[in-house]
Design brief:
7% strand; mainly alpha; Rubrerythrin, domain 2; 58% helix; binds fe (ii) ion; Ferritin; 4 helices; 3 strands
Length: 173
């Protein structure tokens, strides 16, 4: 067994080989590095106003999406949708952690948002699709606007990860 860390979320993973996707934030394998090579790059002394504003908006978005997925999971009548929405809630919650680290703020508490989700999984997959599409569009813009290499890296990884989420909802809505 070896110890790896994800360059996006920083979380540690024990395994024979790096996972194809980070089990915590969903970043693809190329972001997984041996633990000895990991460097914490979340301290950015002169964060630009634009990046700060974009990170604050991203934090709100991730918390709202995680809350939506927690509700969607709780409302699902069958185990596959329950598990799918739970997995998505965990990924979005991890994204909120990553962004909180960059902003050096305490991660907001995430509770199910009973008003945001519906009763039928299909309606929730359709809603998921719209939320992920909005996230990808915003993160693409935020990555382009970022002047800090680390902020650009995180927003670019989020574009990729949320695009995979679109693929999941596309298959199920
Ligand atoms: Fe990760
Ligand atoms: Fe996310």
């Amino acid at each position: 067994m070896k110890l790896f860390r994800c360059r996006i979320c920083g979380d540690p993973y024990l395994g024979a080989a790096p996972p194809s996707f980070c089990p915590f934030c969903g970043a693809p394998e190329r972001y997984m590095v041996p633990a000895e090579e990991y460097q914490d790059r979340n301290y950015i002394p002169d964060l630009s106003d634009r990046s700060r504003a974009n990170l604050e908006k991203a934090l709100e978005l991730e918390v709202a999406n995680a809350s939506f997925y927690l509700c969607a999971s709780a409302c699902s009548p069958e185990p596959v949708s329950q598990a799918m929405f739970k997995a998505l809630a965990k990924a979005e919650s991890e994204h909120a952690s990553v962004i909180s680290k960059l902003l050096h703020t305490k991660k907001p508490e995430i509770r199910p948002d009973d008003k945001a989700c519906r009763k039928e999984p299909q309606a929730n997959f359709a809603e998921s699709h719209e939320r992920e599409k909005r996230a990808v569009a915003f993160y693409r813009q935020a990555a382009a606007e970022a002047v800090e290499e680390r902020v650009k890296e995180v927003f670019s990884a989020l574009v990729e990860i949320e695009s995979y989420h679109i693929g999941l909802s596309e298959a199920r809505k």
